[in-house]
Amino acid sequence: MKIRAGYDIAFECSQDVPMVLMLSVHPSRQADLLGTHRALFSPNVSAENYTDMFGNICTRLVAPAGLIEISNEFVIEDSGLPDVVAVDAVQAPVPDLPDDTLVYLLGSRYCDTQKLSDLAWSLFGSINGGWQRVQAICDYTHDRIQFGSQYARSDRAASEGHEERIGVCRDFAHLAIALCRCMNIPTRYCAGYLGDIGVPRNPAPMDFSAWFEAYIGGKWYTFDARHNHPRIGRIVMARGRDAADVAISTAFGPTKLVRFNVVTEEVLVDDAVSLQPNGHASQQLAQRQCA
Q1: SS3 category, 259
Q2: Nearest-CA neighbor of 225 among 142, 126, 134?
């Protein structure tokens, strides 16, 4: 199957502001791109990419004073299969874990494990390690937090999400990640696109999505505490310890978000999808809001 995705974002800057953007499709999915995947800037600015310590593609630029518009639209090939379910995947003892997974056992900015360790062991200590334990954590998080875009808060840590019982997709991910790490399961945060593919269409505005991956059975498996069932068509953009590592935009100066549009949708057989010379699909982005 093919998926059309992209964004149209604008910031108002009162002065020249250095920025780092994390809006590229993750290197692990770039081979699936059909046509060019390239951010367009208006006004045109000099921008360069680099790879961060987690393997994500980051874009550096200096946004000039005034309005800067950033857009991209692309088509990507996808298997069309839902997230893998591996109920027999077991949890490895810490001494047997690969070196590069150990950082995902540690507390981080939004995953404050030290405040949740006693709770985690009381709730999940008796459950067999591995898939069943991670799924039990997803079930608990899904039931614990009420989703609502009006509940978005950029500084909410996992323990606060647990107490407040409200949040957006990043809050579900942070709580589940923190609880998994308390149980010695390496867990990493993922940000990307997730459209309403294979499920009833949600009338709420589209946004980028957050989920997580747990290292069990010798592999990284996808889990989503907000939706809590396998989904089709995830397009990962970035991975890290928590949302602080994969911020869509980081500004080193005063900026105001004035437009935020995102689209993610399946390209149906009868859709007239033609790629323009710059590699962008012809259909315009639908209006979306930031949650």
Answers
A1: strand
A2: 142
Please give the Cα distance from 208 to 78 (Å, whole number).
18
Which amino acid belongs to residue 151?
Y
Please name the helix (run of DSSP H) or strand (run of DSSP E) that holds residue 211, with its range, or none.
strand 209-216
Residue 129 lies in domain: 94-245
Nearest to 245 by CA among 218, 216, 210: 210
Q: Contact, 248 vs 23, CB < 8 A? A: yes
> 209: which 2 tokens?
């999505």
Based on the structure, what is the number of domains in the chain?
2
Asked whether the beta carbons of 223 and 76 are under 8 A apart, the reply is no
Over residues 49-76, mean pLDDT = 97
Q: Strand 2-13 and strand 255-267: pairing?
A: antiparallel
Q: Are strands 146-147 and 166-167 parallel, antiparallel or unpaired?
A: parallel
- The DSSP bridge partners found for residue 13 are 66, 255
Strands lying side by side in the sheet with 187-193: 219-223, 209-216, 187-193, 235-240
Query: Do 75 and 133 reside in the same domain of the chain?
Result: no
Tokens (6 digits) for 132 = 């069943």
Residues 130 and 182 reside in one and the same domain:
yes
pLDDT digits (tens, 9 = 90+) for 138-185: 999 999 999 999 999 999 999 999 999 999 999 999 999 999 999 999
